[in-house]
Here is the input.
Amino acid sequence: MIWENPVTPSSPSRPDTDAESVVAPDGAGRSAAFTSSTGSLRNWLAVIAVGMGVFAFTTTEMVPIGLLPAMSRDLGASEGTVGLSVTLYGAIAGLFAPVLTVATRRLDRRRLLLVVLGVFVGGNVFTALSSSYALLMVSRLLTGFAHGVMWSIAASIAIRLVPSDQAVRATAIVFSGISIASVVGVPLGTLIGQSDWRIAFWTIAGVGVLILAVVIFLVPSMEPRAVVRLAELPKLLRDGNLRTATLVTAVMVIGHFAAYTYIAPFLEQDAGIPSGWVSALLLLYGVAGVVGNFAGGAVAARALRSTTLACILLLTTAVVLLVVNGRWHPGTIALLLVWGVAYAALPVCLQTLVFASAPQAPEAATSLYICAFNVSIALGALAGGWVVDASGPSAVMFLGGGFSVVAALLMTRYRVARPE
Here is the structure.
């Protein structure tokens, strides 16, 4: 098994090919605790623990959406103002991920993971204790800083715990935390917080403590690898494949969130779905996402570029056909499930593309990816808002499809190495 190695000006001897089997980047290294060709149970449990950390961070990022009315009444701020606790959280996580990842580059990865989880627990406790909107925002921004670092290091820690040919599977497990948070974490957090929104954040903090304890027990010490200075981050983007992977991420995420942010009004107004069905359909979308996450990881391990391009095209088709489908409910449900499968597979594929493009500096490259990802969420929601106000929910679906087409065209620029 080999990486879909990027072809750069510094490696002219590598001719282009369709060879696409994938393993961990050379720069990632293996943990000293790893002892067998299939991976010890303890190490795979450690990978799951890291994935649970991603689950916890994603849950705390999105759970205020379901609690906005209660938080608004309690803190004396409008729902739109309290909603900034989600928007700015994501912006902080994205914009500061490269800076904080570089600033912590010399720390043992296990120690850094423990610090990040400790800040997560403290931030959620601070949120639960917030007596004003100002204190809420301080606590959310504090957690947002930790979120960016968590996303930058999670996958690189996971692949150091397993055999090189299991790297994509480990990455899929880590990113399954995002899908599971959508299916379980956010709805459950919303349910727990119905009587008192603060209970939801106390519960999330408690989950963080449990994850912290498991990480202490399972994750071995890991010396930092591929140290990169802040001034060197832009130099990473000189690699054509990393530029492509980052651009594909940005354009794809803008398109997805431009459409998905307004999926509820589309389903009700244009697809004719009864309002009582919408939450159930979004739950099915999340379940499909869990399936897509693991299925995408399994296929990407053998054909990374092709799988990424296929997922983008599948998502594009589903989004556009949702409009064409009109009010035929079975078609709407089927296309929504296809969308969920295709989109959930993309974070695994895109993260793996980033690793493949910069094996010498996986965490620094990931921080750029996280920056592009999170900033694009905000840009997508903003662009979708403009279009939905001007032309309605169906128009925003076409907008999302248009961005996805651009992402697919960009993906064709990604080059792979042929076996000699």
Observations:
- The radius of gyration is 21 Å.
- The CA atoms of residues 8 and 240 lie 7 Å apart.
- Confidence is low (pLDDT under 50) at residues 1-38.
